[in-house]
Amino acid sequence: MAFLYPVFLFALAAISVPVVLHLIQLRKTKKIVFSNVKFIQQSKNITASQRNIKEWLILICRILFITFLVLAFSQPFIPANTGLNADTRDVKLVLDTSYSMQQTKADNDLTLLETGKELASSIINLFPSQTYFSVFLNNSVKDQLQKEEAITQIEELSFVGNTFPSFFKNTKPDSHLFFISDFQKSSFKLSSLNSADSSAQIHLVPLESGAKHNIVIDSVFLEDEFLRAEVENKLHILLRNTGNNDVEDIPVKFFIGKEQAAVLSIDIPAQQKKEAVINFRFSKANSQQASISIEDYPVTFDNTYFFNLSPSNPISIVSIEDSRSTALSDLYKTEPLFRFTTYTSEQVDYSQVILADIIILKGVSSLSTGVAAMVANFVKEGGTVVVIPPAGTKAEGYTSFFQNLNIAATLQAANSQSIKTNLLAPDPANIFFKSVFSNFDPKMQMPEAVRSASWSRASEDILKYRGGSAFLSRFDRGNGQVYLMAAPLEQELNSLVNHAFFVPLFYKMALSSYKQEQQLAYMLGLNTISIPVNVSAKKEGIFKIKKDSVEFIPEQQLRGGKLYFTIPEAIEQAGFYTLTHQDSVVSNLAFNYDRAESELAQYTPDELRAMLGEKYKNIQVYDYSDNFTVKGEFEKRYFGVKLWKYCLILCLFFLMAEIALIRIL
């Protein structure tokens, strides 16, 4: 046993006061007049016996009262095996403010964040007044705080994204770090503790959640990425129940701008995913803010999914031909969703061609080295190319072109005397023909064509001759694709041009080249985002992300007509933002919270201890409990067992015993 204030032990000398008074009182005699001598003798014997016992008991009570009173002031304690360093002045507090802390406890309606605040305040009050505290405030640290200042900072904490791992890097030797969290399995990584000083004492304080379910909107996507005004489309919504209870009749609302465009109800079994589909018609000519919202409590941060709906730009089609023809121009120029341009093979504007979505090499008899290299590079960078062989005997430059694209294809001469073969009916289950046939007739009359090109090992054969050889195939090459046709488009060699199948076939090839310029939405925490911009790299000025009057400047790089940037850590709120350049709006952005926070599964204290094993001996894991239990466990481990309370109780007990002895005996 040791004493916190041993100087008070000198006060034990006060025990001599009741001892001296007791001895003096025993020597005093009291004269009483009696009429009967026999009665005097009897009274004298009884009184002396009782008086001696009473006085000695009172003396003992007084001595023990003074003794335990002095001990209470000297604050005795049993030292702990793991003592708190006397020089400890650095205590760090990390309260998890991630959105999963919106969950409530099992025994009350307080959120885990509110419970954590109470617990953090009680921990702060454990330490002496001369202790300095550091509090992790989302993306910053407040240090050198007194008790009252630290408690104030804790009370001001609010929900924000999960950024606590960076805090462990700042631990110092012999410091104490308290980490209060729900320890989600989806977000907590034991490796985040590796950056802490090995001599620092780390205290993991788990909080138990009482939440039984949580519905999360995982993502949304358009069935037809090519969004056109006044054209029917479908919005697919992926929802997930991360809890252990089934939920029924969850309302799912779809907003375009501030107007509710649709609503439906959905049931989701426990630990299951569900897809909801909403039919809608986009009636706006410009970009619109949109959102999906549900009603689910107590975790609400993932109840809304923000995204942008923007009408797609026309698909840019470039046709390179030996001589201008009308077959393709008549097909594409009648539709506003296409922008069609034709170049002769001898007059190609390379700077414009590489900006196209799809390039059609239509019957080019002599493919120059420059055009071949440009088109091959276009494919490798994600473009789409359609190769239609030339009529006649001349077909130069194709061998090296195909080799450059790793396509095993050969061309042979074809003329009006060549044998024509009918094509087989297409496979209606092929996704290429989706929405092409309203009523598919397997006996439909198909076009016929000669065969002037052959190949092998295609990614997919879209159409075939009756003999089984390929007429139209797709080759996937990197991020791009090549469509190769086996016959020229001249009418005497290929009746496809006059067939009803010609229009949907070339429409689908053009539409397959469309790539969404930017995603509908982005998750906060992504490393890099790329967005097409019409700004020259030589143009001065920086890109900024704005929300209302607040500006953020991301790390950025402009190359190849695209802006690459990272989402600044300072952006903590989900919602709509604008990307600007020199005060002009470049694009609209929608950010959503990381859905990993929506997973309710958490590590139990026993699981945390099992993860730590014997490697992390400086880390203490506390059981699920309230602030009083954690406080008591920490005191016992680092401050020892304090005995002053027991001394005070015994002090009061002997005081009451003295009073009872005086009145009763």
TrEMBL record:
Gene3D superfamilies: 3.40.50.880. InterPro entries: Aerotolerance_reg_N, Class_I_gatase-like, Double_TM_dom. Keywords: Membrane, Transmembrane, Transmembrane helix. The keyword Membrane applies. Residues 1-76 form the Aerotolerance regulator N-terminal domain. It comes from the Bacteria. The chain crosses the membrane at residues 6-24, 56-78, 643-662. The keyword Transmembrane helix applies. This is Aerotolerance regulator N-terminal domain-containing protein. It comes from Pontibacter arcticus. The lineage of its organism: Bacteria, Pseudomonadati, Bacteroidota, Cytophagia, Cytophagales.
